[in-house]
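step 4 of 6: structure.
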Amino acid sequence: MDEIRDADMVSGKVIQERYLREGMMPHIFCSGCGLGNVLDYVLWAIEKEGLDMEKTVFLSGIGCSSRIPGYIDADALHTTHGRALAFATGVKMTNPDLNVIVFTGDGDCIGIGGNHFINAVRRNLDITVIAVNNYIYGMTGGQVAPTTPVGHIGTTAPYGNIEYPFDMSKMAIAAGATYVARWPVYRPNQPINSIREGLRNRGFSFIEMMSPCTTAYGRRNKLREIKALWDFYMENTVLREDYEMTMKFGSDREKEAVANKIVIGVLHRETKSTLEDRYYEMVRELME
Amino acid sequence: MKVDMERIKKVLGPKKQFIHGDHALCYGALLAGCTFYGGYPITPASEVFEMMARLMPKVGGVCIQMEDEIASMAAIIGASWAGAKSFTATSGPGFSLMQENFGYASMTETPVVIANVQRSGPSTGQPTLSAQGDMMQVRYGSHGDYEIIALAPNTIQETIEHTIKAFNLAEEYRTPVHVMIDGDIGHMREMVTIPHDIELVERKKPKVPPEEYVPFGPGLYGKKKVPEFAVFGTGYKTYVTGLTHNEHGFPATDDQEVHDKLVRRLCEKITDDREKLTDYETREMDDAEVALLSYGMASRSALGALNQARKEGKKVGYFRLKTVWPFPEKAIEELSRQVDKIVVVEMNLGQIYHKVREYSHCEVVLSGKIGGEHHSPNEILAEV
């Protein structure tokens, strides 16, 4: 993976002019929200990979993160809650030449859309999913999500969440994703590189972005300031390489310190054929 | 995806065949140029899916098994935006699951065709038996204000023809179109002639350059209330959302005027053509004093009752709806002025009956039968 060099950088202004839909501004995101960062990283990755925006389709479900495609000047389907991956399956299977990128949130992806998610991963279509995890239902006002940590406050768990959360990236790996990475939004370069690798990977690529929601999550959990949320993510995450080294060579105390942290980094890579390749191969044989 | 009609005809086989209704839906779809089927198994519609799984790859199309009916409906909408004529088939429980995305297809003006091989409900009901219990669900099942087109064939031959027509209407009006059959038509076999000279309708594509294209504005070359459809990947960069949107497709969720204008147009593009879409068949109506009004499978029972009544010298006529939605208001009103009584024959406890009453000036009674058995002629004639 080639690192992004400053010399390669075009200006942010150019990115804005090249990719954003001016007619949709101003955006709906709160101050302190990480969605702007996520959008930025995706556009940089697209720029670096040289994707043809006339052949790129964005899809999303419902929620704050699902509003992202509206700001990008490209074909897009802003679909029903949780169903974006099922819509994406129809798009990609009909026209495999299209680049398909899906934006989803934690509630959208593995709450209401959980079944579509694991089945879409299982099929291994060549699509890239940007799953923005803010650990809460943000747009509807801060209800607990299937990702909310135990003990944290949501409007539907006013005395603290008592349910165990899902780990989205682990689910993606278990269901058969061919590329899985997880990064907090405060690191720009690693996510951009992961999104680039995801776009390049022929198969189901899943990039989980840990994104702060100050409005609906932070202020109820003593993480009101954006810095507090970023610090919280920093304190509770560990790089995959560090985690593995510690678990292999660390003392008991060191192991204990990382055992419950969220592992970030490129979490999984594998190679296997895509559904659309297998399907159209069958079509070619049958039509001969 | 390019459709090779010669290949389709070759794959479908002999011009005359003895096939069942579920397969007739597949034949109709292929002849109409369908290249995408998304499905989920359900009795009594599974045979549609199984036949599509066999046929679709042979004609270069896609057939995919989704994880549920919500996903099937989602997949065919996605396929339509990628340029395919797309199709799914299901029955009651699956049809209920699809309702949210029916609304999405209406709101986003996506051409799709759905077949409902109806079975008894509520809930799991009688999976293997026939009913007409979804005639109101098809019209009103999704939330908000919208109009729908629904056809109700009563023979296997007509099932092929109505399926082709459904695809044409979906393309013409940019809307979901439903083919409403039932478990018995679905599983009954009849001799059919595969139609070979078919007129196909294709969705109108924009001719203006992308910067001048208004994706949800007025139609420029065809119907004024049906905008041109830019297929994804053709450079028009269309934003499609289920949110209330302005003519450019951008969300305008807090604007009363935009919402009013949009939703009225979506409804009016169908209701403006109500007369054109109205399609029915009559028999022995010239001197009829009582009309047996029916549609789909129930009309075959009504036909038996008609023949018996005429033998007995009763002045009974037969009026069969081929298009159920949009409701043929004017035709029903005229019928009600012609006869003294209308007997609505349907396999439910009264659905279309209520619509008939709404537009009738004469007495209207229901002959409703449920439980998977058909009306006997005497049961129908008891209401005459």
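step 5 of 6: annotate
 - Chain B is about 35% helix and 20% strand.
 - Chain B has a mean pLDDT of 97.
step 6 of 6: archive
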